[in-house]
Amino acid sequence: MGEGIGSVEKAGRVGWKQDPEGVRSNIVAVAMAEFAQNGLSGARIDEIAAKTLTSKRMIYYYFGDKEGLYRTVLEEAYRKVRSGEQELDLEHLEPDAALARLVEFTFDHHSSNPDFIRIVMIENIHHGAYLEQSDLIATMNEGAIRKLEQICARGRAAGLFRPEIEPLELHWMISALSFFNVSNRPTFSRIFGAALFRPDGQKILRGHAVEMVMRFVMA
Question: Which is an annotated GO molecular function term of this record (predicted)?
């Protein structure tokens, strides 16, 4: 048995040397699920290490401590959604089509990534303290507002959007419509039933979210 454990540990060390970024990504993915499930205070490094392809020692090597790992998880959660927005290539769409596509993407991303919603909820419990420590998150989210500023400017220039539309308020609206759909799913479905959270219900809600935003902005 000792020989088997030694072989696993050796394989872990080789993996770290050959693919350090892969090891780091594996830790972050496992940690995201742990933090989303148990929160910052409830998550345990021992539990995270046991589910990764590496060791507790390597977690501390990469991230310093549990709070450092949590900040990285928070950054990765925001990076993923902002990276997805960049891939939409909205600049080549008409402004109304670009905005509708962005709403669809946000609704779909949040619906299919409940851990992202839970991580954001957990960070709100901590009053945004760890988010505030990250310059990276601030930069990424500024990019999201700039994207909406560009869409709104093009929409106004084309006579499609009302001139008083504020991109930051628009971002708030899109986020609210998409966030509640996941954050309150357990309580809402237990009180009113789960029909809205089945595929057909989600398709309807997605369409209504787009319609509400577009009716709000159109001239």
Answer: DNA binding
Give the residue from 152, 123, 147, 162 showing the smallest Cα distance to 36: 123
SS3 assignment, position 28: helix
What is the rounded distance in angstroms from the CA atom of residue 69 to the CA atom of residue 40?
A: 10
**By three-state DSSP, how is residue 218 classified?**
strand
The per-residue DSSP string of 103-149 comes to: HHHHHHHHHH-HHHHHHHHHHHHTTTHHHHT-HHHHHHHHHHHHHHH
Task: Give the angle subtended at the CA of 45 by the CAs of 41 and 50, to the nearest 5°.
Answer: 135
pLDDT tens, 123-159? 999 999 999 999 999 888 898 999 999 999 999 999 9
**Chain centroid offset of residue 105 CA:** 12
Task: Indicate the average pLDDT of the chain.
Answer: 91
Which domains, from first to last, does the chain contain? 1-64 (1.10.10.60), 71-217 (1.10.357.10)
Task: Give kind and range of the element (H or E) at residue 191.
Answer: helix 185-192
